[in-house]
Amino acid sequence: MAESKSKIQSIREWVVDNKLKTVGCLWLGGITGSIAYNWSKPGMKTSVRIIHARLHAQALTLASLVGAAAVEYWDHRSGAKAERYAKVLHDNTFSHKE
């Protein structure tokens, strides 16, 4: 019987397979959240709000890139990436019958 994956394991695999989408979504969510937060503060100029949102999103992007690099490093060290590619290659290999 095959083991069912935990929610965290399936999320981690998705992040490994879609690093750029993850970083892009985090950036978009970060800048949106930061703009919403800064707009709730009265007395700030619009240009200052936009600059703060950009800085917050930039910091979040750097953090997510470091996280993606850490996941990639961990996969490389543990050999999980090689196992995953071997499984994909094995599943996609066609057996030719003569």
Automatic annotation (TrEMBL):
Keywords: Membrane, Transmembrane, Transmembrane helix. One of its GO terms (cellular component) is mitochondrion. Pfam families: HIG_1_N. Gene3D superfamilies: 6.10.140.1320. It comes from the Eukaryota. Residues 1-83 form the HIG1 domain. The keyword Transit peptide does not apply. Transmembrane segments: none annotated. GO terms for biological process: mitochondrial respiratory chain complex IV assembly. It is found in: Mitochondrion. InterPro entries: Hypoxia_induced_domain, Rcf2. PANTHER family: F18C1.18 PROTEIN-RELATED, RESPIRATORY SUPERCOMPLEX FACTOR 2, MITOCHONDRIAL. This is HIG1 domain-containing protein. It comes from Tripterygium wilfordii (Thunder God vine).
